């Protein structure tokens, strides 16, 4: 009977790292070392114009590949001790290769989730016409008119007519309607 030869940790680590690099190369078109080099170039360039010259898509891919490469390497190093035979090593390599099929769809899902958390482009948007204090005063006057048996629409129009005297600026009934709708946010 043939005796099983025990593999050294260095051999196991090297073969698993090569398999992981193959997965990264097939998923991103670059190895972990190439990704590390591109990310290092970005971090080392203190000149902003130099960083702007680098291909942003390539840097994004390099950063993802570098991050996944580091994560994969850490997972590999933790499991090296459990691999003792060539059969164990082949099973581990197959598990790594199976990740190449799952990685693109998992990455797309992660990017969609990440995109939702990013701030939208274009700045803070339009500034409100009424400050919180002005909206509060306007809502007080609208409530006063409603207590005097005006309809909500009538109270809004009446307050809009008197807005120059009440608020110091001309405000439409529509703007007042928004303030009235959001009155619970301005109340303290």
Protein architecture, described:
This protein has 188 residues and is mainly alpha-helical. Helix content is 74%, strand content 0%. Helix 1 (9-28) packs antiparallel against helix 4 and helix 1 (9-28) crosses helix 5 (86-117). Residues 46-54 have low confidence and may be disordered.
List low-confidence stretches: 46-54
What is the total tally of β strands?
A: 0
Order of helices and strands: HHHHHHHHHH
Distance, first to last CA: 84 Å
**CA-atom Rg in angstroms:** 31 Å
Q: What percentage of the residues does DSSP assign to strands (E)? A: under 5%
Average pLDDT:
76
Count of structural domains: 2
Secondary-structure-derived class: mainly alpha
What coarse outline follows from CA principal-axis ratios? rod-shaped
Major sheet size, sense and barrel closure: none
